[in-house]
What we know:
The chain has 180 residues and is an alpha+beta fold. It has helices at 4-14, 16-27, 36-39, 125-142; strands at residues 30-31, 45-52, 55-73, 76-90, 95-104, 113-114, 121-122, 148-150, 177-179. The strands form three sheets. A five-stranded antiparallel beta sheet has the order 5-4-3-2-7. A two-stranded antiparallel sheet has the order 1-6. Strand 3 (55-73) and strand 4 form a beta hairpin. The radius of gyration is 24 Å and the shape is elongated. The protein starts with a helix and ends with a strand. The relative contact order is 0.13. Mean pLDDT is 81; it is low at 160-172.
Amino acid sequence: IEGLDDLLTLLEDQFKDEIQTAVKMTKEGRYSHETLFEVFVPGNIVESSSGGANGDSISAFRVLNSRYEVKRSLFGVQSSFHVILECYISVGEYFLSVEFEEVFSPSEAEKEYSLDTLSYRPISSKNLTTCVSRGEKYNKIAKGIHYVEHGPYAFFPLANARSRSHTTRAHLAADSGRFM
């Protein structure tokens, strides 16, 4: 688009101090609500941890887009930061891109926090290596048809050891379906 580069240069010059502050804070492992734009740059890879069977499991996501939204409410003007993230899942013979949005609302807009407190944060080089290795394994084993169909009443619930209850047809899973 004609003139877009000139506009971006003008804006970067006008907000140079704010941008430099955000870059410095991110490099130092800190952020505030106003500097989240530097943490979630489109194209960057971020990580999130979730409890798994063997402790925390790290997942990686690509930042597709990020933006601030400002709204008026009964409590005054409120700002929120929106991030659109992407991951890939196997759906048989191919992988599907899954996009989702996370919203960060400021608890105290002027306060600084450690990047470690974010649910999604810049990925460490160690965790990136781990996620790439795990992704290569996933690519090998996740392709193909892995769904198995079952009919109604195919599964018995686990018996309650305390009550020594007996399973009857009424307690069987009445639905049919698929599992992976």
